[in-house]
Design a protein that fits this description.
Two copies of one chain form a homodimer.
Chain A (H helix, E strand, L loop, with lengths): L3 E6 L3 E2 L5 E2 L5 H13 L5 E4 L3 H15 L2 H5 L1 H7 L2 E4 L2 H12 L4 E5 L7 E2 L1 H10 L4 E6 L6 H6 L2 E3 L13 H13 L7
Parallel strand pairs in A: 1-4, 1-8, 4-5, 6-8, 6-9, 7-9
Antiparallel strand pairs in A: 2-3
């Protein structure tokens, strides 16, 4: 079922004016992406944020569902949050995976533009299935990952197209769709 | 590209104890599902809630992005919200579509259990593509749509399976994945 990690990056990302900023954490990003990640067998969901205060706040939310009243009220949420890790930087994510897996992960991102290393969903779905090497899916918040991060990734996925001339999914929805395309059952072959 | 509508139902739905309740509207359900709906060419996204006060509140959020500062700040959001409609009941949704289309829609839902009218994603994807008849996707909040509503639907989609033994997606994520499976490009054939 693949050896896949996921990171949601709050720094460095662009704002609307293409300035490099740190974004705040959105509460439902923690919940929704943890639940999608757990459903699709992601090994760890890293929330990347440089601020200790912000991480303390997220930590409190997670603790509530892991150990507080939330754990009894909703054990499914407790299980989803068991794979969440709070880290300072993308470098920390890569180090963590390398230490655990004995090799650096292939990194994967998505972009509206086409690059030399742009690949199809089908290509990557097969690759992940066939290999035991770790993969790391990167998602940006705000107006997206910086060019430096994009240029450093091993693979860039094609943008998600619907039938309409509009393409502005939330990061929560994009994560869900991309996990389903890369790791979901072969519903299209049934 | 199909003739598809979507409704998010806040009444009648179950709570954790299988009691029939009315749920509150979650702000990000308005945003995320409007954006996913617009991306996948959904004609209208109905938010079904019986309370006038709650609808007034949602109306204010929508107005902000449709006509207020939000419309200038983020025109993409304005466009997504242009397909949102607030209605009192599921009957109102059906009446609205019948008036507009000249025929009642086929209704579609999802459930963890298998019914006599359970169908595959592939089956429904082809049907929607081939036909001009209207379809209405129903999503429940809380612990899901009541049995009466489930039993009244034309088709019930199989549950979404990931490779893991866990299946607790948020309604926002489930909507995104189901729209991609039913209406997305044929990424799997590329």
């Amino acid at each position: 079922m693949g050896n896949v990690y996921l990171a949601l990056v709050h720094y460095p990302v662009y704002n609307k004016h293409l300035e490099v900023v740190t974004t705040s954490v959105t509460n439902l990003d923690i919940h929704d992406i943890a639940r999608s990640s757990r459903t699709y067998g992601i090994k760890n969901y890293f929330i990347v944020h440089p601020s200790p205060t912000m991480k303390q706040l997220i930590g409190k939310v997670i603790d509530f569902w892991q150990e507080g009243y939330g754990a009894t009220y909703n054990p499914d949420r407790q299980e989803a949050f068991s794979i969440v890790k709070l880290v300072d930087s993308l470098e920390d994510v890569l180090d963590y995976i390398e230490k655990k897996e004995g090799q650096k992960p292939y990194t994967i991102s998505t972009d509206a533009r086409i690059y030399p290393n742009t690949v199809s969903y089908n290509f990557l779905r097969n690759k992940i299935k066939e290999e035991t090497a770790p993969y790391l899916l990167l998602f940006g918040t705000g107006w997206g990952l910086t060019r430096e991060v994009m240029e450093s990734t091993s693979y860039i996925l094609e943008p998600i197209y619907g039938p309409a001339d509009y393409n502005h999914l939330s990061v929560r929805s994009a994560v869900a769709i991309i996990l389903d395309r890369l790791l979901g059952e072969s519903w299209f072959a049934k």
